[in-house]
User: Which sequence fits this backbone?
């Protein structure tokens, strides 16, 4: 039996350091199994794994068409409601179709693209993410509460290393907000729940915290931020610069996701700039506001940035006009 780099087990047994050691048959088997774990394995290639990059010959636009075939048609009343409250918003169905086509022309394919997201933990934020998973494979997640990129520079660096050689990254980020069928912003119907619930709960909690400060009602405390809720504590700190903006807004819930987005936009672009040396063929940054509606209607997205970075990490094209 050999261990590691062809070291005979009997030599180890005869050495003075372990001369008194008694190894059972089970221990010997375990040692042999451990040795086999160090056997060199030839990489099989990302296209063959079921965990990430999708195999197959279908293009991204073909995959999007298949995904959208299962989605409901646009509801005219909801469409008008969303667009009157969020001018510039388009349905996920329309946006995903355009994004796949635009990126396909630049060489992005399901086989060479790693999807990276920084979206809220809320299950409603998975709607867009799940659609894109069916096109580009499982995503690398940078995000946490409210969509802030809590994985930071370390997460971005790890993600960049996972992009296929000569491949691309599609990074999608942004906060989300609900709108109920009767037009209440910050509320949304959820499947299986009678209550019309808050959306985004983290954002609303941070907004209430900020309002307590600006209104002078917040309690002074020396309590340190707890690890068990540090993400929410960070969201509350990151929204502080927008206190006057939110107080002056005609509709605080409508302004809230845009205030969060402005903070996130600075953070994400700073992370990209710090890690741009890891970009391979190119990176597309799609960001904006996710707008969640009820279970039986389409979600929407207000795109605020759609940038293309080249292999050297230079911002070379603003693609946002193509989504309008």
Assistant:
């Amino acid at each position: 039996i050999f261990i590691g780099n062809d070291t005979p087990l009997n030599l180890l047994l005869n050495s003075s350091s372990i001369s008194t050691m008694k190894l059972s048959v089970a221990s010997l088997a375990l040692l042999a199994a451990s040795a086999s774990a160090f056997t060199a394995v030839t990489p099989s290639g990302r296209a063959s794994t079921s965990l990430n990059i999708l195999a197959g010959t279908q293009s991204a636009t073909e995959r999007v068409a298949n995904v959208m075939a299962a989605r409901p048609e646009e509801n005219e009343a909801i469409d008008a409601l969303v667009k009157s409250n969020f001018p510039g918003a388009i349905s996920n169905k329309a946006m995903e179709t355009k994004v796949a086509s635009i990126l396909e022309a630049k060489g992005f394919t399901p086989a060479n693209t790693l999807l990276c997201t920084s979206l809220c933990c809320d299950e409603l934020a998975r709607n867009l993410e799940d659609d894109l998973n069916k096109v580009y494979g499982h995503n690398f997640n940078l995000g946490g509460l409210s969509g802030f990129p809590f994985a930071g520079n370390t997460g971005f660096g790890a993600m960049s290393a996972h992009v296929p050689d000569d491949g691309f990254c599609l990074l999608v980020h942004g906060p989300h907000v609900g709108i109920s069928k009767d037009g209440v912003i910050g509320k949304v119907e959820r499947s299986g729940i009678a209550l019309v619930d808050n959306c985004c709960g983290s954002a609303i909690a941070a907004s209430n915290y900020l309002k307590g400060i600006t209104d002078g009602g917040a309690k002074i405390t020396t309590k340190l931020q707890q690890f068990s809720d540090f993400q929410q504590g960070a969201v509350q700190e990151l929204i502080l610069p927008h206190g006057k903006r939110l107080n002056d807004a005609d509709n605080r819930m409508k302004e809230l996701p845009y205030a969060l987005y402005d903070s996130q936009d600075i953070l994400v672009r700073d992370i990209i700039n710090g890690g741009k040396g890891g970009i391979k063929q190119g990176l597309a940054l799609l960001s904006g506001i996710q707008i969640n509606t009820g279970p039986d209607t389409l979600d929407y997205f207000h795109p605020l940035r759609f940038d293309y970075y080249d292999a050297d990490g230079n911002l070379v094209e603003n693609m946002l006009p193509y989504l309008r």
Q: What stands out?
A: The radius of gyration is 25 Å.
